[in-house]
Structures are given as structure tokens and as C-alpha cells.
Amino acid sequence: MPETMALLRLSWKRNRALAAGMAIATLVGILVAIASGPLEVGSLRGKIAIYALICTMLPAALSSIVLFDYSNEGNLNMSESGCSHWLLRMPVHSWKIAAVPVVLKTIWITVLWMLFVFIARYLGSDEAIPLFAPSVMFSAAAISMLVLAWQPFRSGWHRIAALIVAALAIYGCSALVLVAPFINQVAWRPIAVWTSRIGVVLLYSFVVWLLIRSVHTARTNVTGLVPLRARNPFFGITSADNAPERRFRSPRHALIFHDLLQQRGWMRNTFILGVIPAIVIITLFVPLGIPTVVLTLILFGYLAGIAISRMGATGEAVLSVPSYLAASPLSSAAIAWTRFAFPMLLAALVYSFVLLPIAGLACWPSNRATWNQWAAELARQIGSSETFWVGAGWTAAIVIAAGVFMLGRVATCFWFAMSGRPWLTVVMSIVLGLSVLVPLGVLIRWFILQPDFESTRASAMEYAAWIPWIVAALLIAKGVASLAAIFTVSAKRLAGPGDQIKVILIWAMITLGVSASLAMLVPDPRVTFLWCLGFAALSIPLSRVIILPLMVDWSRHR
């Protein structure tokens, strides 16, 4: 087999699940966006459709940072190269090793950008969005992240410093590319546009050359394959090989410590590359508004899922069962429920940082004026004079409700991911995406096709009368599914009645706690405790948590 073809197959095999999931999510978002046909310029339809495109294409674009890498290893703390050491020892030219991810990343980002531009124009966008320069710029940004991952350094701190410099340079070039077509001085506009185009081509060529050099350095420098010292400059935790002997109270405590040890590098990278930049950018550059709040909540929910999607430098998914656990005397129930609860706590921790950009937005007087106006309107609707407390209660309730919903969606992915079957993961990812996006698209289409406010309100009240019946039917289906899961796990003798009762009691406590919190925070008397209870009971999974031991047993005995 030719070397290039072998590298292509290796890259695709390592990344096909993520690439397929992102491609399917993007396709569904495109279908939802264009469901209403051509839209008027500046209309509400166009804005909703553009937001739908951004919410579906942004994760696919961000995934280009890790897509098509050979090793899928991303620990910024390590000094050696992040490229596959097995591949670096092969008799393959350095430029071929670098060329495959460069070409695949460039094609991926270019196709996404072209789709976004053409669909935005079809939806009625009147802005002259450039085609060439942004796709090259974003491709160069993705390749530069690959350079930082593959380049060996004397210390992990050097890689962090290089990351900060690269991020500032890329941000400056991106601002030039996106602002050049819209500068006020018409005479200077062509010069600025061509300067930005030439600049991004030079930057792209430079980072490709750096990637080839990083491969060559990793293959010829001893630090590239064998680190001179193994230490953690961030937390002072020694590596697993040099760690002192530890004793734990129970096997579950040992499993939690092991998962934390494996997860800490990926968590740190998530904070450095995702959480901290999101806090800074949203606080300093994004004005307060409904789209800002929605995209902020979605972004931090996405980061919470990303934070638990990897397990250390091995590149294994956090939900898969490694061989040493499959052969351990731990029961499938202990492995399943421990490895479910611990990542969910980490995801909740990551999502809680959404409070920082929301608080940071309040530092600007214009944002405070917008929030006060919104709070005053809510207080007027319920006849209250406590404008601040009404707005604060609604803000806290929205953050909690959004977090419960998105973390619940993350939790629903555990049962099929623990099965160890990639085909099941891909199929269920499609089903879950459709189950959220299709009803959302139908609701948006119905809303934007209404002729006036009064008829919209009357139709909404008519349909709202069916909501209690729908919620009751879904709760009955959830109960039946939970009973089926209990009987299945009991029949397989994977968990005893006591353990299953504990899981149900924990679910009930969390559900009641969320419901009570929402009912107390929301000042609107129309939002009763029963409504909050129905939302929490449907958002927090139960049957899919009970069935986890069966999935782990299926994975460890395949």
C-alpha cells in the first residue's frame, strides 16, 4: 500500500466517529435552517436561521483542532511530541506525515465555510461575506494548533507560552481578514482586502512549514520521543510511574482517583483552550442580548461535554472500558455507576463557570441597562415592584434550567458509549440529534409563519392545553422504560435491589432539588412546582442510568 494512502486510512480510522458525528449534526442544522425556504433580508426568519447554522456548524469547526490527528493525544503539559511515536519511527518522509492532516483539515474547514456562506446568502444575508481568506485563515489556525501539539519542548510551560503567542497572532489576523471588506475608507478597502489575502496565504505557508519542521525535530531530537523529565508544572502531581504507593478505602475510591489522574490533562486543556478564552471574549467583546445568552449557555454546555470526552494521554474515551478494568474483580455496576457519576460532576463543574461571563457582562453600563429593561418588563407582567429580584430570579433559573437540560443530554450519551460499539454510538448520536433539532425546527417554522401577534398567542394557548397530557405521557413512558431496565439488570444479576434503589433515590433527590430551586427562583406564579417537577423529571435520565451495568458487561465480555 502506498505511504500516503496508509496515512490517510490511519487518520480516518482514528477520527471517523467524531467526523461522522459532526458532519451529521451539520447536515441536520442545514436542513433546519433552510426548511422555510428563501427569507426576507433582515427578517426574524433570517436571524433564527443564521443562529441555527452557527449552533450546528460551530462545534464542527471547533472539532477541527483535534480532527485528523494520528494519535488523538492532547496533553499540553508533556514536553515530548504529541504526534504518534510509533509513526515517527516509521520509514516515512516527514512531509508526508504532515501533509495528510494539513490537507484533511483544510478541506474540512473550507467545505464548512463555503456551506455557511452559500446558505447564509440563500437565506437572505445582505452582507458581503468573503469566501477565500477566512477559510485559509481558519485552516491556518487549526494547523497551528497541530504544530504546538507535535513540536517537542523542553517543558510544558514553553508550549503554553507558545500557545498564547499563537492565539494572539491568529486573533489579530482573523480580525484583519473579517474587518478588511467593511472598512469605512472606500479607497483603502481593496488594498486592505488584498493585504489580508496575501497575509493569510503567507501565514498558512508558514505554519505548514513549521509543522514539517516539528515532525523532523521530533524524529531527530531525544526530547521528541523520550521526555528528559516527567513532571507536572501546574499541580505538582508526579507521573503514574513515579507516584508513591497509595492506599484507598475502597475499589471505587481507587477508580475515582485513577480517572482523575487520567482526566486532569484533558480538563486542563479544556480550561486553557475553551473555558478561559470564552470567559474573556464574552466578557470583553460581546454585547448582552438574547442571542448572546443562548450561545453562551450552549457554548459552556458544549465545553462541559468536551471536558469529559477524553481520558488522559491514552486517547481513550472516558466512557470506554479499558482492558485492565475489564479484567478487574470490580463488578460491572460499580464500574458503570462510578464512571458515570464522576464525569458528570466534572461536567457540572465546567458548566458552572458560565456564571463568570454572565457576571462579567454586568460590568458594562450598556449591558446593565439592557438587563434592567428586561427585568422591568418581567416585573411589569406579574405586577411586582421588585425589578432587581425578579430579574435575578429569572436569570438564575434560566442558568440552572439550561444546565440541567444540557447536562442531561450529555448524560444520555453514556449508555450507548459504554457499550463499546462504535456503530451504536453513531446511530444513537443521529437519533438524539434529530430528536432535539427536528421538534425545534418545527416549532421555529410554526412561529415565523404566524401572521400577527394576537393569532400567534391564541394558537399558542390552544396548543399549550395539550402540554400537560404530553408531559404525562412522556413520564409514563419514562417509568415503563425504567421498570424494563430494572428487570433486565436484575435478570442478568448485574446489580442488586439495594444498589438500584440507591440510584433511584439519588435521581429523585436531584429531581426534587432542581424542581424546588426553579420553583423558588422563578417569581412568576404561573410557573408552578409541578411544571418544574415535570421539566426536571424529563431532563434528568433514569432508565439509561440503570441500564449502564448491562452496557459495561456487554463491553467487557465482547
Provide structural commentary.
- The chain is an all-alpha fold and 558 residues long.
- The chain has helices at 3-33, 44-62, 85-88, 94-122, 132-150, 156-179, 189-220, 222-225, 251-285, 290-307, 323-326, 332-352, 355-361, 365-382, 387-411, 414-417, 422-448, 453-464, 467-491, 497-521, 529-539, 543-546, 548-556.
- α5 (132-150) packs parallel to α7 (189-220) and α9 runs parallel beside α13 (355-361).
- It is globular.
- Residues 227-242 and 311-318 have low confidence and may be disordered.
The number of distinct β-strands equals 0
Taking the sheet with the most strands, its summary is: none
How many individual helices? 23
Roughly how many Å is the radius of gyration?
25 Å
Q: How far from one another are the termini?
A: 31 Å
- How are helices and strands ordered from N to C? HHHHHHHHHHHHHHHHHHHHHHH
The overall pLDDT, averaged over residues, is 78
Q: Which overall shape is indicated by the principal axes computed on the Cα atoms?
A: globular
Work out the helicity level. Answer: over 70%
> What are the low-pLDDT stretches, counting only 5+ consecutive residues below 50?
227-242, 311-318
β-sheet strand percentage: under 5%
SS class: mainly alpha
